[in-house]
Specification:
alpha/beta, 15 strands, 13 helices
Amino acid sequence: MDKVNLFPDKNFWNGKNVFITGHSGFKGGWLSLWLSQLGANVTGYSLEPNTDPSFYNACDIGSVTNSIFGNILDYKKLESSIINAKPEIIIHMAAQALVLESYKNPLDTYKTNIIGTLNILEIIRNKSYVKAFINVTSDKCYENIEKQYSYKETDRMGGHDPYSSSKGCSELVTSAYRLSFFNENSDKSSITSIASARSGNVVGGGDWSADRLIPDFFKAVSQKKAMHIRHPSATRPWQHVLEPIRGYLILAELMFKNEGYSEAWNFGPNNKDTSTVKNVLEELALQWNEDVDISYSKDRSKQHEANLLNLDISKTTSKLNWHPLLTIKNTIAFTCEWYRNFYLEDNNMQLYTLDQIKKYESLLK
């Protein structure tokens, strides 16, 4: 078994050419910043930020990446961008990532999440310099049976809503390409390791996406408005954004050295830190220490959203030596600290975010 580091190895990443799709988003921005700190040459390909404020602008992600604004569905522009960057590692995060938005625009959701993935896989099929490709999907890719059950990587793909279904499809596409074009029968000198990563409900500072719990909380706080919650009892595997990102970086290192890691991986919290929407909000309000008007009402819409979701991370902990470092309380504390510095302290958010990454890294030192 390969030696597995608990944190990304700076000696490995220094000077590596890395291509990230979706770098203008919340999660992609955190990844870009951490990689730049590790010394990687980061090229980002994404649509322009679609929120104001945005993590991309707040942390000046354009200053630490070669930033290209383009649509993942624009095959020619995407191909030329990859060829020019000559990445050794690609982490694919560009997606239509919102459940409610997928009900409004299902066709665009399927196009982005399936064809976008296909475009990259097809482009890198004959690119020998690409040694590792990670498709970041979602915990919602599984066929959810709504029972006290933690989903394993071998469980069936599914998805009731268009977003979840499209992520299941993206997983199937990735598996088909891995088996058909990136396998032991391929030329060993040109083989690319292909994996997928399924993470839980990712939270942290700098997310202003629509129809997400923590962004909605801080929008309500900043605008001094009431907050209305449709599914207070919904249970989710909440985790800080740095948790799965650390997993992606560790996985990419192993894939680069050994194609034996070309498979699907779950990244989620410990089961005891899986929590309901209501409990998360109560902890947020407690740690923010400010009265927030929150009302709970039964959802009367006909749009289905999963009520119960857990991930089994036993394979990831045993084979990657990755495990969660933050409890749900720690996660919310990290998140509140970031927004407090943004809204109340007027700090340099790029420097503050890098400080949070260092604080996170110190947990195992």
